[in-house]
Amino acid sequence: MTERRKRSQRADRALARAVVNSRAPAISRAAAVLRLLGKSDAPLGVHSIARELGLVPSTCLYVLRALVAEELVSFDAATKRYALEAGVLALARHWLRRNRFNDLVQPALDRMARSFGVTTLGVHVVGLDHIVVVAVSQSDQNLQLTTQIGCRFPALISATGRCIAAFGDHTDAELESRFDTLRWDVAPTFETWKAQVLQTRTQGFAVDEGNYIAGVTVIAAPVWKTRAKLSHALVALGIGDSIRKAGLSELQASLLSAARSLSSQLCGEVELA
Q: Fewer beta carbons under 10 A from the terminal one: N or C of the chain?
């Protein structure tokens, strides 16, 4: 079993615990089912879904039928399996239509991906819980790293996590408890990571050189939608050697400039320090 698959299973188990502990279990169960189906490469049967999420099969079936009725999930009577339905696209489209970040960020992502031969992302920050990829641009290089819109990652992981820690109002205790749950290819100590967080606050952007994924360099710069709260980040990632050849310092400067320009457009000038 690959490390990626193990990480995915751990996330599913964490989601299952959240379902159990939720004060609105029906909503949490429906959200858990939608996320699981969204990550699955193939339709799933009710027992597979129930097993992955730790639900009673009869309860799981009830949730699935409700989601089918709302046209968020489809059911294949021949195979007895469930998959996401087009109704989720309507919800996503409504969200994208009123989100200025997505309209503004794509040209900047395309420009940096093309200029530096990297994959660039726009991510939405959901507190200390997770980040969600909401925009992607890829270069035309033969070898490139990929991800998809809608993918979720732990909030404090990689370079983006250092930005969230640096520019958020979080205690060391909060950060350390989350940090201890993270999975890295080459894990830094908490003390080393904290020093990198302080450096991030000073320079305005963060760099992860092979910690999250061995051999991969990730750079992230924060974006504010309001002055009170970090809302997004711009991210560039690529093979470490390739990024250095393309110009690491130039990429860092370009990413930081784009992030500050976006923040200015979304909420006015933002003071980083």
A: N
